[in-house]
């Protein structure tokens, strides 16, 4: 199977024009098939504010009424998607800016209302990703850039967490490619000592993960991220890397970067 | 050569949800390869207004400063593109919402400043369309939906007239497909008597065109549209049809509709 990288960039890259350019240049140099996933929460919040629409977040998830869905469709699916695409073309990556509606690539289900009505928020399941369609696009020489939007197949776009989209893509495509899922965020990776960027934990397998949790080194916000990463690995993803966008270039130089999670 | 339809829908279809749904259903039934092209001027003007950005139009062309470019990228490339795509998926068309930056499909040149600085407005020339790339997408089973945006290949998106994009696509793809260019607008087609919708002129060739101009039947706003249509035909497009979106269904029923321009 051919290797495939699914790389998610966070807001710290998107919101910093220089960091974004550095990243896109490095991304272009990365050999083989690759997919980029992005959100754009801060830009969306700013646009909503400018339009007098109140942004409501619960546990970091945006309550998405119809006005907010318009905003995220414009920001994620238009502004950020198409600017990243234009920049990637400049660097020589044959990018195509997509949402889950395009090519019917990612189908979501509107989150059921329990205590909170999240509105037009989509959840993904094991059958969400159209691996065949995405593979057709990759084989035709295109590099997909996915915004954090899925659709329900009935004409409705759904705001969908970018980490979730990246993970679903990596899992869904692992039947056709040897997939590595990379989360680029603002730290070097999982740190043994949060105040010491040199204390990077380079490799974590499930046993080591249990130890790190027991020792209280991995806690709070990192827990769901790593739980989901190990879930993706259980479902066929070869490895998950969590690290700084600027360090991705080490992959091009034959090295490794960040924290690598694997079996 | 296989037939290809390049169909441009105007604001009267985009701004009317019922008309849009009727159109997208008909578009889905249209057999063979097809490409949809759209703008979204009214929605963009409204968003600009809501954001306190003044919309300046000269001869129907939008002066596009950097703020206005953001607006049209969000509206054409995001909101309208992705909603049309989601709706088309619902009807069964495997649509992908694109700009000219995606796949490097349409390269524009920033309009030179003469008496008026149009800002980030792109003009197209004979080499603007990447026919091979678009054909790869068509052959992979996708139906491209193009927003009225091109890019300069250096990372800059450019606001580009939707009629011009449709025409450039039809001409550019005429080397690979037997292309028909269809402009859907709010009238039945070219009318002999503007007050009588039944007075449709069904066929116009260059000689008839000269007669209709001499008789004053075709004048003002219709002249550049038809001049461009005949230019497209000279450059390889088999026929150009100008008609009402609701009448497109007659094509599916084996009939013709609107005014058909050909050699």
TrEMBL record, chains A, B:
One of its GO terms (biological process) is L-arginine biosynthetic process via ornithine. One of its GO terms (cellular component) is cytoplasm. It is found in: Cytoplasm. GO terms for molecular function: acetylglutamate kinase activity; ATP binding. Keywords: Amino-acid biosynthesis, Arginine biosynthesis, ATP-binding, Cytoplasm, Kinase, Nucleotide-binding, Transferase. CDD domains: AAK_NAGK-like (cd04238). Residues 5-242 form the Aspartate/glutamate/uridylate kinase domain. The record marks 8, 225 as: Transition state stabilizer. It catalyses: N-acetyl-L-glutamate + ATP = N-acetyl-L-glutamyl 5-phosphate + ADP. InterPro entries: AceGlu_kinase-like_sf, AcgluKinase_fam, ArgB, Asp/Glu/Uridylate_kinase. Its main location: cytoplasm. Pathway: Amino-acid biosynthesis; L-arginine biosynthesis; N(2)-acetyl-L-ornithine from L-glutamate: step 2/4. Substrate binds at residues 40-41, 62, 159. Its EC number is 2.7.2.8. Belongs to the acetylglutamate kinase family. ArgB subfamily. Catalyzes the ATP-dependent phosphorylation of N-acetyl-L-glutamate. This is Acetylglutamate kinase.
């Amino acid at each position: 199977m051919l290797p495939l990288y699914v790389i998610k960039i966070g807001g710290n890259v998107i919101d910093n024009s220089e960091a974004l350019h550095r990243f896109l240049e490095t991304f272009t140099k990365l050999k083989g098939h690759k997919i980029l996933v992005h959100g754009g929460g801060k830009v969306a919040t700013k646009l909503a504010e400018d339009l007098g629409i109140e942004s409501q977040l619960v546990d970091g998830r945006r309550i998405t009424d119809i006005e907010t869905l318009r905003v995220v469709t414009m920001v994620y699916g238009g502004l950020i998607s198409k600017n990243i695409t234009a920049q990637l073309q400049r660097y020589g990556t044959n990018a195509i800016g997509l949402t889950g509606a395009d090519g019917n690539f990612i189908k979501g289900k509107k989150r059921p209302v329990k205590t909170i009505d999240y509105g037009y928020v989509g959840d993904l399941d094991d059958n969400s990703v159209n691996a065949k369609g995405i593979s057709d696009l990759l084989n035709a020489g295109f590099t997909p850039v996915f915004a954090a939007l899925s659709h329900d197949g009935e004409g409705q776009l759904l705001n969908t967490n970018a980490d979730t989209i990246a993970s679903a893509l990596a899992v869904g495509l692992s039947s056709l490619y040897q997939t590595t899922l990379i989360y680029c965020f603002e730290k070097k990776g999982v740190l043994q000592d949060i105040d010491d960027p040199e204390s990077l934990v380079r490799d974590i397998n499930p046993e080591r993960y249990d130890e790190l949790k027991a020792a209280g080194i991995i806690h709070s916000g990192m827990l769901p991220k790593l739980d989901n990463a190990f879930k993706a690995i259980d479902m066929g993803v070869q490895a998950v890397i969590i690290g700084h966008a600027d360090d991705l270039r080490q992959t091009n130089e034959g090295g490794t970067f960040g924290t690598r999670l694997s079996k």
